[in-house]
Amino acid sequence: MPKRFLSLWFSHLITDRLAIRYPELRGKPFVLAGNERGRAVVQASSREAYARGIRPGKAVADARAIFPDIQVYADKPGWSKRLLHRLAGWCLQYTPLPAADPPSGLMLDISGCPHLWGGESAYLQALVSALESKGYHVRAAIADTIGAAWALARYGEQACIAGKGMQREALLPLPPAALRLEARTLEGLDKLGFRQIEQFIDLPAATLRRRFGEELLFRLGQALGEEEEAFQPVLPRVPYEEQLPCLEPIRTARGIEIALRKLLDRLCQRLIREGKGLRKAVFKGLRVDGKTVEISIGTGRASHNPEHLFRLFSLKIPSLEPALGIELFYLEGLMVEKVQLPQEQLWHRSGDPAAVAELVDRIGTRLGSGHMQRYLPEERHWPEHSVRPACSLDEKPDTDWPDSVRPMHLLSVPEPISVMVPLPDYPPLHFKHQGKLVRVARADGPERIEQEWWLQTGPPRDYYCVEDTEGGRYWLFRLGLYGKGKPQWFLHGYFS
Amino acid sequence: MNRVKYTHSAETMKLNSDKIEQLRQLKQEIMELEGYIPQKGQQTDSRLQLGPLHEAFPGRAFPLAANHEFISHNSSEAASTQGFLAVILGMLMQKGGFCLWLGTCPQVFPPALKCFGLAPERVLFVNVPREKDLLWTLEQALSCEALVAVVGEMRELGFSESQRLQLAVERSRVTGFLHRHQPRSLHALACATRWKLAPLPSTVPAGMPGMGWPAWKVSLLKARNGKPGHWQLQWDGEGFQELFHQQSQKIVQNRKNYA
Q1: Fewest beta carbons less than 10 Å away: which of A243, B38, B74, B227?
Q2: Could you write out the DSSP letters of every residue in A210-251?
Q3: Which CATH number fits domain A241-342+352-357: 3.30.1490.100, 3.90.180.10, 3.40.50.300, 3.30.930.10?
Q4: Is 0.80 topped by the overall pTM?
Q5: pLDDT tens digits for A378-421?
Q6: Which of B211, B247, B251 is the best substitution to test chain A (most A C-beta atoms within 10 A)?
């Protein structure tokens, strides 16, 4: 089957992308600059800057001389390549075989696709207008060979389509640069006055080879379809998904368990091969009556252990309603992460972290996430904000725990108390909490904790540790100072 | 005739002594299985330094693969119990690992655990919203061999439920601490010990202001195969010290004066 190729050329790839991301840049001249041999050189210029003569390769200082108000942004190496790969992935909706064509183009193998859009010109129009509506300036061409499509996209007319076997005619009026030649060869051709391909395409091969080397003939052959050209399409990501159709509708929990086990085994085999694990997964059943029932799980740590995942799902199987029966089972990994391989243990440590992580998952699945927490210190002033939940079992504290004494039981909301204080800044002699009078025998303090001025302003808290005559220990604080307004007293916790 | 009878009785005595020996061995094995004494080939655990409390247990060893019951009636007692538990957990987790602290509402403020020698980041806190999930979670946790210890805070616990927890602990050899706060009835549970802690006034050198180290009245109300007792202990950041309370004597004296 004859092949057809579509070449896309983004004339201002990165600058268009920036303008899409930051709409305020749209329609403004700006450039991306990188350092080359110790000076800032323009790497890419927006359409407006290009129109003013600021081309890539020009020094930024020169660009500023041409247009003083030009905005300069730093370029990141490898940016355009990543962007092209993403765009190639986007093109998967138009053809199964898109390829990135660095530095600023895409090459699509569209053999057998355009008729779905109603012909090649409609197909080309659909693709180009979709990209233009995103905000890219793009030129495209279709031809039988990669070389001809490349040449026509860059040097031909806009939306140029070379018919089947017509690439030779289409190439004739184009300049030699359209053949993807090296700069030296182009210079040689220019010196001899070859401005268009038609001037030398009919010359004997031996003559051309003697003057310009093998490269010119090779490139010409590629453009005309006489030489093979490699094509490396981007591979679409295969989703982590398995399905299991059933001969007869499944109605029993036992049947669902068997189906789940089969699907988990298959998915886990693939995950183990790729060194990945599930963080979130959903198990769906398509019922005879056309409805879908599903259960989902989440893990605290990527896992590809079918036994563990099965146990997590099995807690929720009773909530699946098979009604008249389930015909088709789906298992989908919604979130997949790299598995942290267990480190070889040099010394014995009690407690296998993987087993603890599995316990955490089981409990989290039953109780709902957020009910199981490990706490790490946070650098905040007020006691109730001085801890934060850890994200994972492996996270280490990034600061030390405070050294000052803290109560074993901290009341989530401080409870107001009425006190008798002999002097300002003295601990109370006794206080009344929920109608009960507590006589203070010993006291420590105060420990002043200020408001976090960068968040809010207000009076500080002065904390006192007090002990009653029976040995019960309390953490009290006074909000505010005597002499400035009316301070209030609160009970905030119990010590051991 | 007489002689024959004599030899016969000697044989019975030998048989009896064999039986006694067998019984002793069986008892030993049962205690090993129940987690009261370390299994053969294992050394006695040197992590726990409980001072005078060791005398209460068979073989001077705190039963590790077993459940322990703690009872508290008010907030101060609960906080004391939590402090005592934090000390024991800190000793058990000297070599790393994780422990689990679960209850129906958040009780413990993590930074406080540091004073009792327990690294707060190695404690997993579980806040069980529904009472009926608590036992399930507790059993799951007690059956996980990777944990060092599990603390469960609850109000009520039935005898058959505690038996189930005991079975889980025997299989996994995790130490379980069941803290019952304000229980309605004090019925027996399948636990190795029953403790009650109450705060004591701290001691400071005479004439000095401020508060001293936390001090507790530790009551071991029940100890299977051991001797229950009462101690007055002070935690000074590194270990337990027995308090020979001048204050308690003073109180006794006062009573005498008033009476």
Answers
A1: B227
A2: HHH-HHHHHHHHHHHTSS-----PPPPPPPSEEEEEEEEEE-
A3: 3.30.1490.100
A4: no
A5: 888 888 888 888 877 777 888 888 888 889 888 889 999 999 98
A6: B211
